[in-house]
Amino acid sequence: MSGETLFGGTARYSQEGQYDGQGLKLILHRFIIDAIDDEGVNILESPRPQVSRFVTDRVVDYVNRHHLAVSRYEMERLAEELVDELTGFGPLEVLLHDSSVTEILVNGPNRVFIERDGMLHQSDLRFIDDQHVQRVIQRILAPLGRRLDESCPMVDARMPDGSRVNAIIPPIALDGPCLSVRKFRKDLLQSADLLAHQSVDEAVLQFIRLAVSQRCNVLVSGGTGTGKTTMLNVMSLLVADHERIVTIEDTAELQLNHPHVVRLETRPPNAEGHGEVAASDLIRNALRMRPDRIILGEIRGVEVIDVLQAMNTGHDGSMSTVHANSAQDALLRLETLVGLTGRQVAERTLRQMICAALDIVIQLTRLPNGRRCVSEVVEVVGIRDDVYVTNTLFRLERHSGKFLREAMNPASEKLQHAWRELQ
Q: Are residues 43 and 49 in contact, defined by beta-carbon separation less than 8 angstroms?
């Protein structure tokens, strides 16, 4: 059966004689917008139940008037999706309310991927077209005061519930608008959860607990989505209640369940290029706030010098994360970031500074089955012949999935005390 053109759109029947849902929804969307304009009242500012009644009445009216082969269930579902589209985040609405979904990835209008239990799956949800995706993105960004257009085609922001949002649109994104949402976990993971998920074993967890209590400076390293922020959260729970913590992040993701926390967040420049507050500025300011510990969400730029100096000037017990594939790579990554600052530092001096600042590196990985876990815990000992000397304390044996204790004894006094407590 051929399609019919209504309100500028085309509704197509499937081979079974049913209307194509997305095509019909597009037509109904335009029909309802026209009805709102005709009545001269912005029903979208009304409470959701009133909007739902308005939309349902119009959907029933349209289906009956055009004698469409649509069941009552399908009409109700269409009406609910239209209400979500008009008042919420369209196809994403159901995903945002699904606690089992940890990440949402939109690659243009027809490909929506979700992450559950560390594994990505393609969803059967989709948008109508590129404009539909952009309307939802703009609706997400509107209350955040962030801008997304051709002059500023990329944005990184935080939703009111703490979820992290990144969006990029054409012409930069060639296949249509792309959206990434890393959802904010409302139930804070505890150390027992790490054991339950086999992210660590009892010995590794006990060692981390003792290292935090001994005020070791810790660098958490890993790839994207390996659980670096989660590890920082868990370690923060191990900090004594009487200590004052200052956190610094580009996008606030840390959930520190601690009685004395000061949370700072960087600010990007405005449309005129002014008003930026960088992580390095916040680190320098944090040093004047009498912190016992500084937690930097991620080292990614010129702030690397400032955080290393903070760790070297009496702020023991500080923590941060970095993107790297191994503990050794993490140390080299810090060197690279220092080089990008433009500061001229002799290689040996720089390596001595890194070794003096850091006590241990906790490397995280994500296995093919989606399991996120600690792959190694490495002590940073020093340098010899201008090369880093490290001591692997724990290592994940990938074949068996067990954590092996590698070293006989750590080099530093702080870690020796923690190591003896494990015996």
A: no
Residue whose token pair is 């239990």: 117
- Residues near 68 by beta carbon (within 8 Å), at least 6 away in sequence: 19, 24, 62
Q: Provide, for the chain, the percentages of residues in helix, strand and coil under a 3-state DSSP scheme, each rounded to the nearest 5.
A: 35, 25, 40
pLDDT at position 22? 64
CA angle centred on 183, ends 181 and 187, rounded to 5°: 180
The pLDDT score that the predictor gives to residue 44 is 65
Alpha helices in 154-291 (DSSP H): 191-196, 202-213, 228-236, 279-286
223-270 pLDDT per residue, tens: 988 989 889 989 988 999 999 999 999 877 888 878 899 999 998 887
Neighbours of 267 (CB within 10 A): 13
Please tell me whether residues 295 and 333 are part of one structural domain.
yes
Mean predicted confidence (pLDDT) in 214-221: 95
Token couple for 230 = 């989660």
The pTM of the full predicted model, rounded to 2 decimals, is: 0.77
C-alpha–C-alpha distance, residues 254 and 245, integer Å: 12
d(CA 86, CA 55): 10
pLDDT at residue 19 in the model: 47
Claim to verify: residue 312 and residue 405 sit in the same structural domain: yes
* Counted domains in the chain: 3
What domain range includes position 259?
Answer: 191-422
Same structural domain, 244 and 369: yes
For 283-336, the pLDDT digits (tens) are 999 999 999 999 999 999 889 999 999 998 878 999 999 999 999 999 999 999
Q: Are residues 125 and 78 in the same domain?
A: no
Our separate counts of H helices and E strands in the chain read 13, 17
Question: Is residue 390 included in any domain, yes or no?
Answer: yes
Please measure the distance between the N-terminal and C-terminal CA atoms of the chain and give it in whole angstroms: 77
* CATH label of the domain that carries residue 270: 3.40.50.300
Q: Which helix (H) or strand (E) holds 81?
A: helix 72-87
Q: What is the pLDDT of residues 125-166, one digit of tens each?
A: 888 788 888 988 988 888 887 888 888 899 988 888 878 899
Q: Tokens 């940890």: give the residue.
A: 102
Domain boundary at 86, 108, 143, which?
86
Residue with tokens 């960087």: 266
10 assigned to some structural domain: no
**Which phi and psi (to 5°) does residue 104 adopt?**
-125, 130
Instruction: Kindly state the tokens that stand for 267.
Output: 């600010």
Tell me the Ramachandran region of residue 67: left when phi exceeds 0, alpha when psi lies from -120 to 50, beta otherwise: left
Closest CA to 36 of 82, 93, 88: 82
